[in-house]
């Protein structure tokens, strides 16, 4: 698309600097600057800290047994506290 725009002197200087740095034409420099400014902003990488917690304290090869043991322990706790 062909159009006419009026640039402030400081903006023109920035475009000219971009032209010199990258060896671009005026049109290419303006398009590059507009794409950078109007494009989708880069998302900040999500980081979750990790912690060494040691090995498991129960055997994990029998998941149903582990679940039953946890349920039994909770039932014993409730009976002991009267809840």
Characterize the structure shown.
The protein is mostly helical and 83 residues long. It has a domain at 9-38. Helix content is 55%, strand content 0%. The chain has helices spanning 9-22, 26-38, 63-81. Helix 1 (9-22) packs across helix 2. The radius of gyration is 32 Å and the shape is rod-shaped. It starts with 8 loop residues before the first helix and ends with a helix. The model has no long low-confidence stretch (mean pLDDT 90). This is Antitoxin.
Distinctive features:
3 helices; 83 residues; mainly alpha; 55% helix
Summarize the structure.
This is Antitoxin. This protein is mainly alpha-helical and 83 residues long. It is built from 3 helices and no strands.
Give the arrangement of secondary structure elements.
Blueprint: H1 9-22, H2 26-38, H3 63-81
Q: What's the helical proportion of residues? A: 55-70%
The low-pLDDT segments are none
Per DSSP, the total helix count is 3
Query: How can the largest sheet be summarized?
Result: none
Protein name: Antitoxin
């Amino acid at each position: 698309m062909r159009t006419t725009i009026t640039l402030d002197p400081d903006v023109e200087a920035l475009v000219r600097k971009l032209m010199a740095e990258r060896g671009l034409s005026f049109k290419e420099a303006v398009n590059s600057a507009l794409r950078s400014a109007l494009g989708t902003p880069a998302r900040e990488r999500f980081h979750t800290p990790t912690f060494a917690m040691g090995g498991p304290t129960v055997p994990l090869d029998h998941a149903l047994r582990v679940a039953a043991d946890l349920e039994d322990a909770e039932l014993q706790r409730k009976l002991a506290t009267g809840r």
